[in-house]
């Protein structure tokens, strides 16, 4: 429903603040348990499902049938070791986050896939290998491929929960209140008893497009339980900069989430006693490019690259080992923050872009999103995918040239400063190509490429054989300017293993729960400092299921 009434009042057993994936899961679980549910969201109905709709639909699974069919040997023990090596928990505030991490890994190795399969979710059979790490056995990264793409991408994950909510609406037990912006929690004796907020003017903004904040009224909601699923802060660059470690954020950033991801309600929950922790831990990407067909302001897209492009800083120097494409997102972002420049470069050629470039997001993968087998089969044909070709020819960040010297000159022209030595760029590529010709070589990146091709998915669809990058038959040469792309909060409201929000003394705030990104995907930051990827949607599912079931249990009778 959308409303322009002043002083609107509601009541429900369970009130869910936010209609993204975690909110829908909470609502579905509470409805399944027999509770009445009200879902509040500041956006119009067109944006139901939130960020998940735009996602590539990757889920972290452990020892799955898809992995086993590809010869991947995984286990809960190996996955937990990878998780802890990546998270690097080191704060008192990590007590609950660590327990959430252990629970989530067990979920990913156990019930997660069968639960989703029973709901109708299916997976693309070729598992992907994200965040490969490249350090020692106890450091960051996935030891094996675990990134399972949902058949239908983000919309495919949303489907069963949208259907369950629609069932609840038809049964009269779930209400959807769009354009209702929660601003304050109501308290009685320290217990949360409901929500106050503003009714916003009706809006016809399409999904993801910024909607107005014109206030036309107010509302109150009373409920026995309030679950906060209001998301993160990725579109609020002021807040991102305030929370950036050391406050030394890039001067320029692209935005990887709709404008509605503003983080405002997290502060309202903190004001009501909820413990907001680890806010300086965030997950932004260094491989952002401008979307030539933007939906929201400053809209960026992430390149999902195979390991072959050379990654250069703004002055043309290769990044240190193991900061190759797809190995360590946060490590790369931190290193680039020391260079004094806001951009970096991928340098590659046509052969590499044809096979190794993919773009994150449901709209950039119409074959997987639309479950179009004929369109998917075209990925096996020569040439880049249609969306990648579109960026190559129309994206402002993409340059092509016949020679390295010409490419370096174009790179300087694009940024308006002579930061690249064109002859130096040629010498960098020539040195790399000599390593290819040697047949063995000492170049760690080339050795990583050879190692990646031992895995069936990479050899088949993701990684080209090592070759001379400047060889004419593989041309033209291509440079892609990369910028920081804001995306996820890794910190959030601290919760216990039941999804109950805790105060600063570690005591649950009566009647208050949180899930999804607002809760740091559980416990106030179950990822610690780094993500293994495929864990954001999965974190929404797991924390949403947990909080929804607990809120329903606590409001029984």
UniProtKB/TrEMBL annotation:
The entry's keywords: Flavoprotein, Oxidoreductase
InterPro entries named in the record: FAD-dep_OxRdtase_2_FAD-bd, FAD/NAD-bd_sf, KsdD_DH, Succ_DH/fumarate_Rdtase_cat_sf
Domain FAD-dependent oxidoreductase 2 FAD-binding intervals: 13-537
A GO MF term: steroid dehydrogenase activity, acting on the CH-CH group of donors
Record keyword Oxidoreductase present: yes
Protein name: FAD-binding dehydrogenase
């Amino acid at each position: 429903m959308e409303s322009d009434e002043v002083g609107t009042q509601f009541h429900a057993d369970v009130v869910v603040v936010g209609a993204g994936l975690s909110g829908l899961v909470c609502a579905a679980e509470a409805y399944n348990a027999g509770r009445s549910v009200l879902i509040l969201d500041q956006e119009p109905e067109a944006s139901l499902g939130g960020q998940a709709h735009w996602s590539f639909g990757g889920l972290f699974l452990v020892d799955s049938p898809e992995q086993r069919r590809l010869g991947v040997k995984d286990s809960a023990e190996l996955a937990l070791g990878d998780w802890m090596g990546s998270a690097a928990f080191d704060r008192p505030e990590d007590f609950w986050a660590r327990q959430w991490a252990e629970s989530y890994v067990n979920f990913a190795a156990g019930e997660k896939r069968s639960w989703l399969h029973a709901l109708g979710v299916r997976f693309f059979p070729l598992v992907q290998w994200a965040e490969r790490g490249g350090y020692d056995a106890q450091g960051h990264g996935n030891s094996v491929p675990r990134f399972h793409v949902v058949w239908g991408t983000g919309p495919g994950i949303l489907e069963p929960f949208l259907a369950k909510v629609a069932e609840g609406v038809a049964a009269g037990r779930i209400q959807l209140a769009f354009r209702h912006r929660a601003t304050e929690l109501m308290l009685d004796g320290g217990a949360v008893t409901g929500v106050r907020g503003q009714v916003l003017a009706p809006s016809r903004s399409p999904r993801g497009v910024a909607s107005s904040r014109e206030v036309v009224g107010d509302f109150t909601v009373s409920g026995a339980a309030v679950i906060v699923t209001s998301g993160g802060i990725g579109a609020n660059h002021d807040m991102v900069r305030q929370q950036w470690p050391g406050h030394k954020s890039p001067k320029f950033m692209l935005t990887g989430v709709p404008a509605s991801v503003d983080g405002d309600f997290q502060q309202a929950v903190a004001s009501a006693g909820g413990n907001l922790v680890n806010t300086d831990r965030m997950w932004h990407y260094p491989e952002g490019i401008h979307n030539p067909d933007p939906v929201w302001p400053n809209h960026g897209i992430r390149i999902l690259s195979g390991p072959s492009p050379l990654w250069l800083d703004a002055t043309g120097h290769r990044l240190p080992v193991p900061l190759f494409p797809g190995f360590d997102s946060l490590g790369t972002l931190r290193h680039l923050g020391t260079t004094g420049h806001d951009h970096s470069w991928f340098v590659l050629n046509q052969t590499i872009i044809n096979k190794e470039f993919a773009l994150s997001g449901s709209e950039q993968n119409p074959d997987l999103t639309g479950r179009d087998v004929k369109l998917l089969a075209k990925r096996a044909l020569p040439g880049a995918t249609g969306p990648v070709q579109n960026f190559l020819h129309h994206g402002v960040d993409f340059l092509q040239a016949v020679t390295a010297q010409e490419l370096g000159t174009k790179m300087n022209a694009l940024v308006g400063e002579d930061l690249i030595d064109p002859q130096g760029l040629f010498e960098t590529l020539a040195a790399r190509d000599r390593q290819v010709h040697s047949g063995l070589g000492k170049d760690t990146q080339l050795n990583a490429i050879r190692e990646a091709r031992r895995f069936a998915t990479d050899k088949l669809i993701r990684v080209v054989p090592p070759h001379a990058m400047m060889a004419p038959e593989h041309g033209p040469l291509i440079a892609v300017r990369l910028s920081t792309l804001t995306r996820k909060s890794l910190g959030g409201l601290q919760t216990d293993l039941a999804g109950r929000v805790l105060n600063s003394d570690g005591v649950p705030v009566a009647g208050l729960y949180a899930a999804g990104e607002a809760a740091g995907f559980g416990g106030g930051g179950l990822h610690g400092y780094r993500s293994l990827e495929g864990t954001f949607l999965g974190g929404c599912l797991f924390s949403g299921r947990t909080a929804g079931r607990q809120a329903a249990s606590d409001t029984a009778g």
